[in-house]
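Hi U.,

Before I forget, here's the chain from the pilot set. I'm dumping it here mostly so it's searchable later in email.
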Amino acid sequence: MMLEHVLVLSAYLFSVGLYGLITSRNMVRALMCLELILNAVNLNFVIFSDFFDSRQLKGAIFLFLL
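Structure:
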């Protein structure tokens, strides 16, 4: 996959999660939207790690810590 496609997907996930977090009144829905935001951040970590230094797994390892 190209870097731009994954970044657009990540931005979409982040914006949907942020919108849901701001507008939700239900706590379960707010936590699900927070999970979407964190998944978008994790996706960015992994794709940047793969794009800039594919020999090391820093982004993938940090994914499990977050």
